[in-house]
Amino acid sequence: MGVESFLDEVLNRVKEFLNLAQQTDVIRNGLPHDSLRKTIDLKLPIEGHGIQSALDDIDSVLRHSVHTTAPGFMNPLWGGLSVSSIAGELVTAATNTAMYTYEIAPMATLIESTILTRMGELAGFSTSKGTLTTGGSNSNLLGLLCARQSMDQKSSSLGFDGRNSVVFVSEEAHYSYSIAANVIGIGFLNIIKVRCDEDGRMRPDSLEEEIERALQAGQRPFAVLATSGTTVRGAFDPLRPLAEISHRYNLWMHVDAAWGGACLLSNQYRSLMDGLDLADSFCWDAHKMMGVPLICSAFIVKDASILRQVCSTGTEAHYLYHGESEDVDLGRYSLQCGRRNDALKLWLAWREIGDAGWASLVDRFMELATYLELKVEETPELEMASSRMWTNVCFRYVGDTAPEDLNELNAELRHRLLQDGRFMVSKSTIKGQIILRSVISNNQISEQSLDSYIKRVVELGQDIERGLPSQ
Ligand SMILES: Cc1ncc(COP(=O)(O)O)c(C=O)c1O
């Protein structure tokens, strides 16, 4: 089989898979891993099976993949369908290159720089530099590394005794900070969790108290890590007062906007991140609300020299860098050497729909989240588990069940929902209560799909209350 007909066959299969996601009721077939392992042939052969068999393998991969572009997919903070971005992924693979130098990735280098500059502008940074990373977790790691470098300019070259150094995050921040604390050498126990208000936002007064307490205990605070769009509730920390406190104590301020960063694209919702311009760095995942396929995460910093120091190696990588495009080469601002071109898919999508298209997308997602929230409120069997600021709609089934049994019921409900296969949402916990976190970050969701979702949740909740077994 020639390259051309092979690729045609592959594309046909991909198109069929994407079409199926819109038509099927079952977005996940739910086979347990031991059954799936027995069902498909995963072995790596001694003698190759040939290109034709790759088509069979692709068929089996597609058959057993979750339909993350289906309207019922509301589980993680990403999903949906962007055809131009999928095309970008194909072209990225076909033009297979690494992002370290202009020499080897001319167009991709300029594209990535254009995107990062634009994101810096949207944040209101007067100067900025950045890099695309392997995800929001690693963008947060870069934020912490920059903070460490800013506190101790020798830390990148001589190392650092971080046992006494502390950073502050909201008690609802993403777990990636713990890993980052481990990697930068302070250890995750040196992360101080700051209390949140009723709505899940870091309290500025509590931050100040914690900083004072740490100073009195002889600890060395060096960064405040705020969140714009928390993982479970979608809360936005109040950046302006937090930045004011950070500056007063001479602390680096990094903002994790992996999830909420897209609000900067909407006139209506940009104010959720009011004060971002006062931060030192932030991250923003385009693979979340912007619907670009994973991974596409940006880390942006105001002071380029800090990022350059963090990513410097001491010995010049003479086999890569030759000086002539020093200002343009992106490898000097990345923790990676080989790095894939994640910029193209975002650039193609941005060129396709423009700033106006992004604004409509964010506004539409918020409209759908409001719709879902209203549906929950008008359904007697359900109750919201938290106020809503973003498109995370957190609720639980209450029905006629006693309060002490609600956790068990909602855990079972989520389990049945998953088995049912029509809707996928996450099981999370808010203040000890098990809730269903339904996220609107998938452009295939509609009012109709949300109606069916609520109907199904109520049916399953009632089944459980009546003691009916799972079907
Ligand atoms: C608030 C927040 N920050 C960071 C991350 C990590 O992003 P990634 O999965 O791209 O590493 C997540 C993931 O959901 C998140 O919710």
Please tag this protein with its features.
14 helices; Aspartate Aminotransferase, domain 1; 11 strands; seven-stranded mixed β-sheet; four-stranded antiparallel β-sheet; alpha/beta; 3 domains; Aspartate Aminotransferase, domain 2; binds pyridoxal-5'-phosphate; single chain; 471 residues
Structure description:
The chain has helices spanning 3-23, 33-39, 51-63, 83-94, 106-123, 136-151, 155-158, 176-184, 204-216, 239-248, 304-310, 343-378, 406-420, 447-465; strands at 129-133, 165-170, 191-194, 220-227, 252-256, 281-285, 297-301, 382-384, 392-397, 426-430, 433-439. By secondary structure, it is an alpha/beta fold. It folds into three domains: 3-67; 96-340, Aspartate Aminotransferase, domain 2; 350-465, Alpha-Beta Complex (Aspartate Aminotransferase, domain 1), CATH 3.90.1150.170. The strands form two sheets. A seven-stranded mixed beta sheet has the order 1-7-6-5-4-2-3, with helices on both faces. Strands 8-9-11-10 form a four-stranded antiparallel beta sheet, with helices on one face. Strand 2 (165-170), helix 8 (176-184) and strand 3 form a beta-alpha-beta unit. The longest helix is centred in the last third of the chain and has 36 residues, at 343-378. The model has no long low-confidence stretch (mean pLDDT 96). The site of pyridoxal-5'-phosphate has 15 residues, from helix 6. Residues 77, 135-137, 174, 176, 227, 229-231, 256, 258-259, 285, 297 line the site of pyridoxal-5'-phosphate.
